[in-house]
Amino acid sequence: MTEHDSDGGSDADSGTDEDAETAADRVPVLLVRGDREYLVEPGAEMGTDLGVLEVPEDVQPGDTLETHLGDEFHVRRLRGPDLFHHFERTGAPMVPRDIGLVIGETGIARGDRVLDAGTGTGVLAASMARAGADVVTYEQDPDFADVARENMALGGVDDVVDVRTGDVCEELETLESSSFDVITLDTADAADVVAHAPELLVDGGFVAVYSPFIESTREVAETAREADLANVRTRETIQREMEFDDRGSRPSTAPVGHTGYLTFARNE
Ligand SMILES: C[S@@+](CC[C@H](N)C(=O)[O-])C[C@H]1O[C@@H](n2cnc3c(N)ncnc32)[C@H](O)[C@@H]1O
């Protein structure tokens, strides 16, 4: 179970009911009361300062559940952006708007096979799985990989996301050629994988790389061109929040909404 409050923070909690059933059997749901949200599995017991709540095995979105002290929670179906708030965090998770760009620019869809690294928190991997892809994702930190596996179960995608512990660069030789439709990279050494993208990708497949810094972004773009990938392009991801008040409407004066750089290329 994880709790999320309105400030966007995320806390891990140890209340998850561990068992061997897969996501297909147990679809996690959100329990919502005001600005409190808990992501729980059916059958779990949730302890809060409002009392203990037993989540029925057959819980459904739209239900209302009560704690033993009589406080009500509404049951809501999990949606993609909830992963960002409720997964236990390790490596900095990709924000929903950048995930939207990755999925939109690469066309990830049902039946796609995706190679992803590094897994980190696993928000991107889980989001691609929810879009219908089968994902193989590498995480070099064994503790992070363990947390990511738990997150995949919490997100209901542990049956389609294979979290492998290891350095993706050292595993490339073990991967079959032309076995991926899309490669997504969020690592400092992404260029080393991009150099091998033409062997790993099917004809017409895409590579998408998220880089926080311009230096690594440039290295990725140059490597993609040297590897003869087509349509290499880089975009800064930046958004302005709009404010509407009695005086008028304008972009927020809060700090600029820059997150990083996304580089895309295609195997042709
Ligand atoms: C920024 S996080 C990725 C976050 C992820 N995209 C998400 O949405 O949750 C980067 C992760 O890559 C891992 N990493 C870095 N280099 C790696 C490599 N060569 N192979 C596997 N994992 C790597 C790091 O340990 C870290 O957990």
Descriptive keywords:
268 residues; alpha+beta; Rossmann fold; 2 domains; seven-stranded mixed sheet; six-stranded antiparallel sheet; 24% helix; binds S-adenosylmethionine
Give the strand line-up of the largest sheet: 11-10-9-12-13-17-14
State the fourth-level CATH superfamily of the largest domain: Vaccinia Virus protein VP39
- Which cofactor or ligand species appear? S-adenosylmethionine
Count the beta strands.
Answer: 17
* Whole-angstrom Rg: 20 Å
CATH architecture group name of the largest domain? 3-Layer(aba) Sandwich
Shape: globular
- Portion in strands: 25-35%
Largest sheet: 7 strands, mixed
What's the order of the H and E elements? EEEEEEEEHHEHEHEHEHHEHEEEE
Ranges where pLDDT stays below 50 over 5 or more residues in a row are: 5-24
- Count of separate structural domains: 2
Pfam families: GCD14
Keywords: Methyltransferase, S-adenosyl-L-methionine, Transferase, tRNA processing
GO molecular function: tRNA (adenine(58)-N1)-methyltransferase activity
Domain tRNA (adenine(58)-N(1))-methyltransferase catalytic subunit TRM61 C-terminal: 97-243
Topology of this protein?
Elements: E1 2-4, E2 11-12, E3 29-33, E4 36-40, E5 45-48, E6 51-54, E7 64-66, E8 72-77, H1 80-86, H2 96-106, E9 113-117, H3 123-130, E10 134-139, H4 142-154, E11 161-165, H5 168-171, E12 180-185, H6 190-194, H7 197-200, E13 201-211, H8 214-226, E14 230-239, E15 242-245, E16 248-251, E17 257-266
Parallel strand pairs: 9-10, 9-12, 10-11, 12-13
Antiparallel strand pairs: 1-2, 1-4, 3-4, 3-8, 5-6, 7-8, 13-17, 14-17, 15-16
The structure holds S-adenosylmethionine (SAM).
